[in-house]
Amino acid sequence: MSAPGENLRINADRLWDSLMEMAKIGPGVAGGNNRQTLTDADGEGRALFQRWCEAAGCSMGLDSMGNMFARREGSDPEALPVYVGSHLDTQPTGGKYDGVLGVLAGLEILRSLNDLDIKTRHPIVVTNWTNEEGTRYAPAMLASGVFAGVHAEDWAKARLDAEGKSFGDELKRIGWEGDEPVGARKMQAFFELHIEQGPILEAEGKDVGIVTHGQGLSWTEVTITGKDSHTGSTPMPMRRNAGLGMARVLELVDQIALSHAPDAVGAVGHIDVYPNSRNVIPGKVVFTVDFRSPDLSVIEDMEARLKTGAAGICDEMGLGISFEKVGGFDPVAFDPACVGALRNAAERLGYAHRDIISGAGHDACWINRVAPTAMVMCPCVDGLSHNEAEEISKDWAMAGADVLLHAVVETAGIVE
């Protein structure tokens, strides 16, 4: 298919205004957003997105996991749609751009095509995937994982949040459970724009990153059990301190990741301590170990060494320990043709670019299993994300959206 002309661009002001308008829903406490999945704020953000899509002439599909699909018709009703999108849900202390940029840039593509009266042969569908973040309901990318056949829908809907509320019940409560079977849709291709969430593009002065691979991820939930007892009256040699056991395991996690430097990483970001009282020695701790690497064998090695080493630590301390893998995916190699379309778009538009490996998980990592997929990234200030201080510039958003526009339109085919 012929490439679109380099004068084809999105409306950067309109895209930015949409980002700022969406950010008013579920505001955080420090300038960002708290629009966690399946909350009332999530429902409100979805409703705004649907209104915008319908105003752009799209029909809205909704599947039984709450995934939203805004469709702009193509000239060929038999042609498979080209999909583009990301997610509207945020971290509890999230920024205004993580995920949201990819959804609203998809909407901006449709608005720009409408402005220019450009018709495509393939339909274009903008998607909002449910629960990408995985904070309220583990694992991350839950609904796209069901779509791709990685997770069973019943299992996903039975996932519980910290208050014991199930995914399925909360999806119904906010009114965004559709009738469409999950995964029934077939795609010509899927493209996702996302902020980098790392410092490389900004540090090197690049406008966009062309994502060739996605880092693999492993989340292991570890539960250590001891005995809660009084901090003042329990002699040191007689304590079974689950918190101390966790501290030693956290050091082990760091050592394991460092042994695979520079590409592997590991950390613990979520910890629950019981009973979490100042004067009670913790009797139980639950925490999640996050290991990542672009090499599957490295991830498997880190998992194995965690289990062996942590079990040894706890055995020596008289503590119990159990492990549950609550999330993960293998490293991803994105579709060469889709990657090429993004790279060619960046070159055609004159944007400084480089190939990059995504250090974070994204819905595209699962969709890559069922359709040709690729990602493009724009820089973010200081590489900061999953933080209310997350920031990008209008020019960065424009560059990423322009490249996305060209790759989507080239794949969808312009009707002359």
Descriptive overview:
- With 416 residues, this protein is an alpha/beta fold.
- Helix content is 35%, strand content 22%.
- Helix 1 crosses helix 12, helix 8 (242-258) runs antiparallel to helix 9 (296-317) and helix 10 (336-349) packs across helix 12.
- The mean pLDDT is 97.
- Strands 1, 2, 3, 4, 5, 6, 13, 14 and 15 form a 9-stranded mixed sheet that branches.
- The radius of gyration is 23 Å and the shape is elongated.
Q: Which word captures the global form?
A: elongated
Distance between the termini: 11 Å
SSE order in H/E notation? HHEEEHEHHHEHEEEHEEEHEEHEHEH
Mean pLDDT: 97
Low-confidence stretches: none
How would you classify the quaternary structure?
single chain
Task: Tell me about the largest β-sheet.
Answer: 9 strands, mixed
Please give the radius of gyration in angstroms. 23 Å
Give the total of beta strands: 15
Classify the helix fraction into a percent range. Answer: 25-40%
> How many helix segments?
12
Structural class: alpha/beta
- Report the portion of residues in β strands: 15-25%
